[in-house]
Structures are given as C-alpha cells and as structure tokens.
Design goal:
Shape: elongated
Number of helices: 5
Low-confidence stretches: none
Distance between the termini: 20 Å
Structural class: mainly alpha
Oligomer: single chain
Helix content: over 70%
Order of helices and strands: HHHHH
Mean pLDDT: 83
Length: 151
C-alpha cells in the first residue's frame, strides 16, 4: 500500500482527477447557486476528468521516466484512446440518448410503465476535453516540480 501512496505516477493523476471533479462542483455552485457534491463522482461536464487524468499521467511519466521511454509511449497511446473516446464516441452516445428519450416521451406520452430514462450527459464537448487536458498537464507539471523541490 505504501508503494502506491508514495508513487507520484499514481498520486499526481489522481490529484488532477480530483481537482477536475472539484471544479465541476464549483462551476455548479456558481451557475446553480447550490453545492452539488454528487458531481465529485459524476461523468461529463466541464472539465473532462478523463482527459485531465490521462494528460496528467502522460505528463508525469514524461517528467519521471523521460519522453523517450516505453512507459511514456504507452501512456501517450492510452491517453489518445481515452481522449478520442471522451470527445467522440461518448459524445455520440450522449446525442443518441437525448434523441431516444425524446422519442420515448412522445410515444409513451407520460405512460408510467416506462419510467427509466437514458443518461444524457455521458460524453464531453471538445472544449471540455481540451480544458481537461490542459488542466492535467498543468497539475502534473506543478506537482512534479513541487515534489522535486521538496525531495
């Protein structure tokens, strides 16, 4: 357990993910005038926590292991897949969910036999993904420099 807690390649991306989720709570507080702590574990929204986590992972591995390492190459490929999925495939699923819910609303006209609705906020816009990626890179650079300074 101590190895995980002491491993900056694990801790820094986790910290970046938490910061991204906390920003969602803050944005909700400003926009809706209420604090919604359930957003800490919610998917979707600004910024993309998926993009934040993998960008922080790539950046941390790049700083710790070097950008010529196999580890960096692996995390870069993983990040590309996750970011593509967050902005592409999952965004398409979100749009499909909205359309399906509208069709069901129209077909069933409030019939309570089908009360389950599909989640509509699943993916991210390109701006949410870009913001998440920038946040992840910034958190990783600041955190690795901070740990270097105090090591």
């Amino acid at each position: 357990m101590w190895l995980i807690v002491n491993n900056q390649v694990v801790i820094i991306p986790a910290l970046a993910w938490f910061i991204a989720q906390l920003i969602k709570v803050i944005i909700s507080k400003v926009h809706d005038k209420r604090t919604d702590w359930s957003l800490i574990f919610a998917m979707g929204g600004m910024p993309s926590a998926h993009a934040t986590l993998v960008s922080a992972l790539v950046t941390t591995v790049g700083v710790v292991e070097g950008t010529n390492s196999t580890y960096f190459a692996i995390t870069l490929c993983l990040a590309a897949i996750v970011i593509y999925d967050a902005a592409g495939v999952r965004q398409t699923v979100s749009r499909h969910s909205v359309i399906i819910n509208r069709i069901l609303d129209e077909l069933l006209k409030g019939n309570p036999t089908f009360e389950h609705r599909l989640r509509e906020l699943i993916g991210h816009t390109k701006i949410e993904v870009l913001a998440g990626a920038i946040l992840g890179i910034c958190v990783a650079l600041v955190a690795t420099r901070f740990l270097e300074y105090f090591a």
